């Protein structure tokens, strides 16, 4: 059975990929911006970047969604389409779904701290509208990360050898869907080398899942054909016995 994937929800609409490459012969750590990357935890030298965090919280009070939509800034409510008020704030840049029961979903944050901070800001907005909103049972429900291994991948071979975990139907979706058991993470693997990881509750699950899959991906690295451009002054064709060296195979 194929699985429909929303590229936006999966974090595919983001740019950059978030991978940190480590050169050969690096020291104990590579630099992730201002923070060192612990190569004991990330032996691949690549650290997936968090792209989206979905969290939930209970405001523990009944809400009049129509009134909230009328009085709050950056809020919209269309009960015929969706039974929640959609609210947005700029810092942290997030979106909240606020339900009449007092349950709230916060999405769009790129760190655990920002997700909790945003949820508190939304709760405070509700409080200022006159509701006795609390902040109960905050929980991160899903984390999405992404990275780039910087080499193309033979998805057909990967799907054949790992059929128990893989679903690859390129006519429906361009990526291979890989369901890892431990940790329980879903990976979207693209021929370009871009990877999206989703389903984590803590960021360590994303890191562990990527380190588990990375050696497998290297086995299915695509060989690319790279033309060698040389001038006659650089290459004496006779020295190579007349062999055509203008097309060599190189595994990228």
TrEMBL record:
Compartments, record wording = Nucleus
Q: SUPFAM superfamilies annotated for this entry?
A: TATA-box binding protein-like (SSF55945)
Which protein family is named in the record? Belongs to the TBP family.
> Where is it mainly found?
nucleus
Function noted in UniProt: General transcription factor that functions at the core of the DNA-binding multiprotein factor TFIID. Binding of TFIID to the TATA box is the initial transcriptional step of the pre-initiation complex (PIC), playing a role in the activation of eukaryotic genes transcribed by RNA polymerase II.
One of the record's GO cellular component terms:
nucleus
Q: Which GO terms describe its biological process?
A: DNA-templated transcription initiation
Organism expressing this protein natively? Panicum miliaceum (Proso millet)
Give UniProt keywords alphabetically: DNA-binding, Nucleus, Transcription
Question: What PROSITE patterns does the record point to?
Answer: TFIID
Q: Which Gene3D superfamilies would you find in this protein's record?
A: TATA-Binding Protein (3.30.310.10)
A Pfam family that this protein carries is: TBP
Which GO terms of the molecular function aspect are on file?
DNA binding
Protein name, please? TATA-binding protein 2-like
């Amino acid at each position: 059975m194929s699985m429909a994937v929303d590229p936006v929800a999966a974090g595919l609409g983001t740019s950059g990929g978030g991978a940190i490459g480590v050169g050969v012969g690096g020291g104990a750590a590579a630099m992730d911006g201002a923070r060192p990357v612990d190569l004991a935890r990330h032996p691949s030298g690549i650290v997936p970047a968090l792209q989206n965090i979905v969290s939930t919280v209970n405001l523990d009070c009944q809400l009049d969604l129509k009134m909230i939509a009328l009085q709050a800034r950056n809020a919209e409510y269309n009960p015929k389409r969706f039974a929640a008020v959609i609210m947005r704030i700029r810092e942290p840049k997030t979106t909240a779904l606020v339900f009449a029961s007092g349950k709230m979903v916060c999405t769009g944050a790129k760190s655990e701290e920002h997700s909790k901070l945003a949820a508190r800001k939304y709760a405070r907005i509700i409080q200022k509208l006159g509701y006795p909103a609390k902040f109960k049972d905050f929980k991160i429900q899903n984390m999405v990360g992404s990275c780039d291994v910087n080499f193309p991948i033979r998805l057909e071979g990967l799907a054949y050898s790992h059929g128990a975990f893989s679903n690859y139907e390129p006519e429906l979706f361009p990526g291979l869907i890989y369901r890892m058991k431990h940790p329980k993470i879903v990976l979207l693997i693209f021929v370009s080398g871009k990877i999206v990881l989703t389903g984590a509750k803590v960021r360590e699950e994303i890191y562990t899942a990527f380190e588990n899959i990375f050696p497998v991906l290297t086995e299915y690295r695509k060989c690319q054909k790279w033309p060698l451009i040389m001038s006659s002054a650089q290459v004496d064709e006779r020295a190579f016995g007349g062999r055509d060296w203008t097309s060599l195979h190189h595994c990228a």
